[in-house]
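Write out the bound-state structure for cobalt (II) ion.
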Amino acid sequence: MTKRQQKRKETRRRIGADVATLNRPVAASARVRAGKVFAPSDVPPEIQRPPYARAKGVADPTFAPGSFPARMRAAGRAAAEVLQIVGAAVAPGVTTEALDALAFDTYIALGGYPSTLHYKGYRKTICTSVNEIICHGIPDDRQLIDGDIVNCDVTIYLDGVHGDTSATFAVGTMSDDRAQLITVTRQCLWRGIRAVRPGLPINEIGKAIQQHAESNGFSVVRTFVGHGISDVFHCAPSVPHYFDRDATDIMMPGDTFTIEPMINAGSWEVGKIWRDGWTAPTADLSDSAQFEHTLLVTNDGCEVLTLGRDETPDYG
Ligand code: MF3
Ligand code: CO
Ligand code: CO
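---
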């Protein structure tokens, strides 16, 4: 380990672990602000990188043999494992940087590359979206506060394919309103999953999600959608989480895509993206939650590739 790496490791330990001493009282209602973002660590050279993160002139890596579904299953399982570990570390006083550092180490331990690192200029290994942040929150030195909700979005590149999954976690004890938002958002994901069937148009998914969200008094974000995923991180089809009459792509066995509804307590509209170019708050600063799975369409429905170890569906 170089001196620089060692110093960075120490900083990380400090901001992640000294929870009790670092705890300063912050109003639970304060809006989320940008914090200090730390430079990414180096990914070991033996980890195979996606094309956008490869140095010029480096030969394409060779991947272990295996069918596309088999590799997607392995990437999905690994993504679920990282999410489980990151989610278990969520607690008051923990910084989102500490969650990112934990994710980084876990991706590498599993032999995978953190798909978001150097993707379109993004420089961290997960997204952490707190309270009114809809998605693409950048891990920084902000400590999670009792009562916060935080979505952790994990993506791994393993054996030449990506697995993508996210969940929203409670930090300590949370309000009934926030608990309800999380419960309904998770149900929205599962209702979307239940609507996956070969031969049907992809807008069946958004139809089911929008119906459930709105009947519970919540709204569905339209700007960000689910996506095809394979050896490419984001590809066709686009998977809206509201009913889009033009989303008529027909689902076919073997297709792999994500469903990742972002559900708001207030208006569905996205506010101004932060100056970091990524962080997307709600327009009215109302709370937002999100859950995501990567799916494989089968002959009679779908397989949830990123299913958690103890996870069971909840359709509400
Ligand atoms: N994981 C996100 C998704 O669900 C994408 C994050 S891209 C990033 O599609 F660059 F913002 F990290
Ligand atoms: Co996704
Ligand atoms: Co994701």
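---
Residues 17-27 have pLDDT under 50 and may be disordered.
Residues 153, 155, 164, 166, 260, 292 surround cobalt (II) ion (ligand 3) (CB under 6 Å).
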